[in-house]
Design brief:
The protein is of the alpha+beta class. Helices cover 38% and strands 26% of the residues. The radius of gyration is 15 Å and the shape is globular.
Length: 149
């Protein structure tokens, strides 16, 4: 796993560990509303901290790069969790990208498409976030390996 990579056509970064999934979030929400708010805040700021650690606070995406195409590659400990439960954590990541100043917003003006792929990494799970300027480059990458959703 590379921590980060920046090229003219894309940049990537990884967040170590598994993020809170949808079922866990719903369970927290049903038990006490502030518990779910705390989860969202912690996971969002975990993303912000990782982005600042890897890129500093001055990496900004230029206007002409939008709309972006983003691929989330989830490397989980096992295959027990449903893909849609795992993929829910993209919300925390996108919000973290905005809060860090990396993205100006996470609306459809800035995001052209979102995609996910899944794999397993028993000993050290992580999510890799790949941000592309051109959808073709993202689709070329997706054609190389894991199962797409």
């Amino acid at each position: 796993m590379k921590d980060k990579e920046v090229r003219d056509w894309c940049f990537t970064f990884s967040i170590p560990g598994e993020m809170v999934d949808l079922n866990t979030y719903i369970q927290a929400e049903r038990s006490y509303y502030q518990k779910s708010a705390k989860i969202k805040k912690e996971e969002t700021w975990r993303t912000v901290a990782r982005i600042r650690e890897l890129f500093g606070s001055d990496m900004v995406i230029m206007e002409e790069m939008y709309p972006l195409h983003i691929l989330f590659v989830w490397h989980t400990k096992n295959t027990r969790k449903d893909p849609d439960n795992v993929d829910f954590a993209r919300k925390y990541i996108l919000d973290g990208m905005v809060n860090s100043g990396l993205l100006r917003n996470d609306s459809r003006k800035e995001i052209g498409s979102l995609h996910s792929m899944f794999g397993t990494e028993k000993d050290s799970p992580y999510v890799e976030v790949r941000v592309y300027r051109y959808a073709k480059d993202l689709l070329d990458y997706m054609g190389q390996g894991l199962t797409s959703s």
